[in-house]
């Protein structure tokens, strides 16, 4: 007798449930796949943008670093033009260090003669010279940065800072920068003092000549230094170090007291009886130290070019501020430590046996910088520098 089999009736919901679960899993997989792909794309895009930004920054840093590096080498003349200009300096019995740039390339950077004749130490591309009044262009830059930040106005008067100075209610910052205030110093200190004491001496001994008339006198820049210190609460020495030496990587730039102890310093000589090194000009620290903000800096030719390169590029002073001061009215006149021409700038300094001449095109592509530690009396290398610059840009 056969036993009767009983079949369990299947539940129709089971297959549907399985299908439903499978659909959820597939959908979840598709979602995750889509989400991950988009995340990856976004991540890649972000990385790409970050790389571009980083790359741009690196390129800029590399360019700045490379520019500094380029000046840390001697460049002998190899092109016909460089050889011609080198010969012109030799014919002019030039002693010092020269830098020449043509179309953005250094074609000559070398020394001529001796930095220390007694020790037969030659001038080189690393030699330090006193730049004299060219420092005024750096002080002017610091002032214009205050104008740019809105803390100062070019047409603001001296009365805000030094109300006791004669006609301070009429004298503007613009006039001080251009030495058109009429002020001059009736006497100069003859003994060593601190920087602050030198500065206060210069300011307290400022008297009025003819208001509004150009008169080349350091008093104008002593006052600008005092204004800087009032506005920032920082010493001029510190401001200079932070703004120029550190930010622009000017590793061959220093104040006078450091210059005296540098192995790369040059010694000035006076030419007599056709002897280029007849008389050694003695160091006179007081004459440099009292020139607060106006003439107490030692530099190499390369560092000076680096400063002016930033000065002209707008990285320190923006175009609006730059153009608000150097207007067509200031062309070929002293203003802000330089002489501005149509296509180039000129800067000049003379101090105790040192002379500096600088000619740089406004696009920074062409330059002639001559530093000398032999400043013959009644003679200057300014004309020689201009002749060389004219040949360079022709």
UniProtKB/TrEMBL annotation:
One Pfam family here: Beta-lactamase
Beta-lactamase-related domain: residues covered: 85-383
Keywords: Membrane, Transmembrane, Transmembrane helix
Any Gene Ontology CC annotation: membrane
Gene3D superfamilies: DD-peptidase/beta-lactamase superfamily
Domain of life: Bacteria
InterPro entries noted in UniProt: AmpC-like, Beta-lactam-related, Beta-lactam/transpept-like
Transmembrane segments: 12-34
UniProt key word Membrane: yes
Compartment list: Membrane
This protein's name: Beta-lactamase-related domain-containing protein
Organism whose genome encodes this protein: Enterococcus ureasiticus
